[in-house]
What does this fold into?
Amino acid sequence: MLALALALVAGVGCGAYWGVGTVRASFPQTTGSIRLDGLSAPVDVKRDANGIPQLYASTDEDLFRAQGFVHAQDRFWEMDVRRHVTAGRLSEMFGAGQVETDAFLRTLGWHRVAQQEFDEKLSPETKKYLRAYADGVNAYLADRDGADLSLEYAALGLTGDYRPEKWTPVDSVAWLKAMAWDLRGNMQDEIDRSLMTSRLTEQQIKQLYPAYPYDLHQPVVTAGAVDEGSGKWDPEAEPSSDSAGSSDSAGSPGSPDSAGSPGSSDPSGSPGAGSSSQDGGTAVSGAGASESGSAAGQGAQTQLSGLSGLSGLSGLSGLSDVLDGIPALLGPNGSGIGSNSWVVSGSYTTTGKPLLANDPHLAPQLPSLWAQMGLHCRAVSDKCSFDVAGYTFSGMPGVVIGHNQDIAWGFTNLGADVTDLYLEKVSQTGWTSGSRIKPFKVREETIRIAGGGSKKITVRETDHGPLISDRSSELERVGERAPVTTPAPDRGNGFGVALRWTALDPGNSMDAVFKLNRAKDFEGFRAAAKDFEVPSQNLVYADAEGNIGYQAPGRIPVRSEGFDGSMPAPGWNPTSGWKGYIPFDELPYEYNPKRGYIVTANQAVVDAGKYPYLITKDYGYGSRSQRIHDLIELKIKDGGKISTDDMRTMQTDNQSEIAKLLTPHLLKIDVSDPYVREAQKLLEGWDYTQEPDSGAAAYFNAVWRHVLRLAFGNKLPKELRIRGECLNVRPADSTGPVDDLNSLVRECGQRDSDSAQPDGGDRWYEVVRALMDVEDSEWWQAPRTRKDAATTTRDELFARAMQDARWELTAKLGKDVGSWSWGRLHQLTLENQTLGTKGPGILRWMLNRGPWSLGGGEAAVNATGWNAAAGYEVTWVPSMRMVVNVGDWDKSRWINLTGASGHAYGDHYTDQTDKWAKGELLDWAFTGKAVEAATEDTLSLRP
It folds into this structure.
């Protein structure tokens, strides 16, 4: 990047590269006509005042060829970077600094699997659409280069001769792998639990991963069961007494290859309590599994519980560091990416038809992940079968979330556990499985580097998946000193780590996109969902006939008895592999439920005690979903009706559940310091809403951050704490008193700010809730410092957190508490995800925008997330919002985080962001008449 910076400065100084012409060279033509070879008839591209395109064609192939062309017009830099990510080829664009990232991505093999899907799995029709889309992209690229494509290419051209290659259909398919990676489930939790064993007992770790609070937060599906007679999910069936979530249930056949639950815990357990009994060594998958589990399961848990803070755990820390370095295209690594989507039946709406809302919570980026678009056939027929609009991914044909003329749908992350880490006993010749040494599957990859040169890597795979430990020298030492109390191979220099992940098996998810776009009813919707194998999403549905529904799709593994995916499994045990997948017909769904509405917000799908399969041990904890439930119930009580604007207002609800729990206790603390008392008074009469101008919200969130730091963060191993934060702590193997300052060692945090713990999400709400009545729990103990006395009780720790928060905000916001506001702390800066984050300062200035002062917060419905371990900066956001007025489509509303354009200084680069920040929505024209009325520019693409 230094070379780029120097060249850029030189270019600016000469005035040759960065004149108005350079900036405007890539702006798309939006009026007149352009020849597009391969079309059978003209295609019209109609753009409204926000530059949102609506495409009108006469054949399906013409429609997708035009979509590829228009996506490239608006967003090709974004598309090009994405395909280099998915192919592990970032070094070709950005140089040697990306080799390690590329090596990890090549080891995963996203692009290779996407190629298999295209060659072997996808339907001929889907391949036809993908080829047409690629042809449209390449038609745009044909006569353009450098600044003609985007400002970023002009900058890249200053230091090298990079030229974009032609787009391929596989480039589009591979994007679904990146989407699946960022929505992969509990892999970070699996790593974190293992790392915690260096400083916490098993009982303490359980306390930090409490059971889902079904008594407080409803699951998505509250009725129905797998019918014993038909073997299918029946929304009207009653669960049998023995249908609790046992992973020993038979899954569908399919590629079988062939971990105790954190569960609920006794809140009296505490850090520093000494070694616990190995009661958690029994890996129980749901209440219906056997109490003892298998010996293999016991061995796996015992071995991983024993990966103490010696060199054995440095491997998992190394893996976490590698994960932090992988571009998180959808959200921060380990932060529990979420979304809200809900649908209300017409019986409870002012329109008499369903209303459907959706706002996926993803990483803030510029441009937004989403591109709004309409894809319309002039006349729907066999040769032209689409009339659909919504949110698309640039680089991929079709509409991902939106509606057609018959149905609407929304997505949230289901959170299924679809990844497992396997410890592997490896040697030069292979890996151990039972009494055998099995050979690796081996392939070589060559990473080309911008400016010349290349690096070759060797990828090794076991039956469980790629050996990701080969990508880190630290990972080679995983399990080096792990105590083993059941039969296991000689650990030698340590175990390797392999990744089993559903997305590394070829599937049909791309087929699902087109089926969903054309579905006409719930049957067609479910047929599309059946193909949506990865990533596993909650799909919410409504149709113009007044029906509402929900489907949990996805390829979700069935694990062997004794393994629940919460900790790495022993790869040398032949019984530790997956047995198959949950059959689609047994996955939960709802159709016109009696309650009259359906809410999905990453909460539990179904009560684990009433379902025969394990979906995950690591759902979100349901704070947002329950708040949405409560808002709906409040609105419809006594015969009330919900309007489109009510749905929008619910999307921007800022209430904090943890504030509602803690604030009454904080107000009871006897505070003697007058300056801290001034801050405490801010909480009096506060309604727990986190508006941008709220001083109470600013102070409460600072107190919450310090409660987490004192009670939990400072007790976690360095591998989980934020990088650079150094503490004097007791040695990991210390048996001395908690407050013994004479035997401390200096340890500095090692975790990236986006994934450091405790992050303050709703898991931590439940951790604290369980401890509130245990006033003398050792979790509330914090050692003395030079200026603070030690704390031994809840209220003492709360008082210290209130004091620390007061002085932190004084430093950040000033001494006068009347000037404090949440929005001054909680700010969003939109950054170009490549040169805007790593480029020279002048380029970042040109490409990035902001900041915006926001309301909302962690686990609020208006989920402007922040990581309490790192600070208050916004780390993920509602990446778009939509409210679909089903049946009366032109009265639907939508908004994007940024704008339609990916071109810096274009009119539509961030023209929606101000409205988005205020919670406003744009009109969403769909019918031909409404689109025509909203059209400001028309471009004709001609054969």
About this structure: Residues 1-17, 246-312, 473-486 have pLDDT under 50 and may be disordered. The longest helix spans residues 60-87. Residues 122 and 508 are 6 Å apart (CA to CA).
